[in-house]
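User: I want to check something. If I give you two sequences, will you return the structure for each one separately, not as a complex?

Assistant: Yes, each is folded on its own. Here is the first sequence with its structure:
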Amino acid sequence: MSEESAAGDDLMLVIVREFRAPIAVVWSALTDPDQAPDWWGPHGFHVPRESIDTDLEVGGLYRACMIKDDTGEEHWWSGVHTDIEPPGLLMFTHAWDKPDGTRGFETEVAFRLEEVDGGSLMTFTQGPFESVESRDAHGSGWLESFERLANHLGVDA
């Protein structure tokens, strides 16, 4: 393995999580904007349904806002859906929107779902990030979001 690919691997976030819910139910939670407010964002944040604008097709745009509960601080993000293969693959770009209207550093996100023993195995990837610190901060946020997703699905977190 070259140093360059090793560095690239270090900048990728990978989270594998099993949910004791059918793959169709998990897929619906991942793609239905009406369910998103129940689980999007880490603890201490919420995503109002009215902030979510999404066109769930390849090439379709999306944008949403995560609000910090105690301060009201808004964190907008947006991207483009790059691959959608129900119920097993959802891919899109992700970048935080800056206050001046430009987009920050862009990563690619992928949710891969497989049926396992009546449940769903999710392999989540995001990256490459511009730094290990950014990767780790996103990892913490996603882990909390996936706890909220488990609760939304009615399965053990």
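And separately, the second sequence with its own structure:
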Amino acid sequence: MKRLVLAISLAIMGGAQTANAAVQSTGAVEQTVEGKKFAMLVQSVKSLRSAIMTATEIKQANPSAQFEIVIMGQMVQELTTDPALQEAYITAEKYGVKLTVCEFAMKVYGISMDAINPYIKGTPNAHKYLFQLQEKGYNTLSI
């Protein structure tokens, strides 16, 4: 009988510890970024919005950080047709997040630089430009 009571007590205590560990593991993970230069290559509107959100969070924590988002692929068509993106451009400009678009993709999809927001600058080739940013010490990510 003592063994049964002991086993039940240990099971209850073990269950309580497991539940407590589960509660502790659901807490937020600290997300600090030590770098000073960041660049993201994006190919969809959803990724662009996510990149701008990430950039603003980093810039709020470290205003001197440099952040650039390079836009490429078929999504360049949406730069002129999605009115909701205007707010994203304003946010990027407010926080000093540079936006650069692949001019090659623009040519492929028949979009002129005059048709997009003037805050967005062009680069002849997005992939080559990302390599150049890496050579300049940028932490890069493609999404």
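Because they were folded independently, the notes below concern the second chain alone. Residues 4-13, 15-23 have pLDDT under 50 and may be disordered. The radius of gyration is 23 Å.
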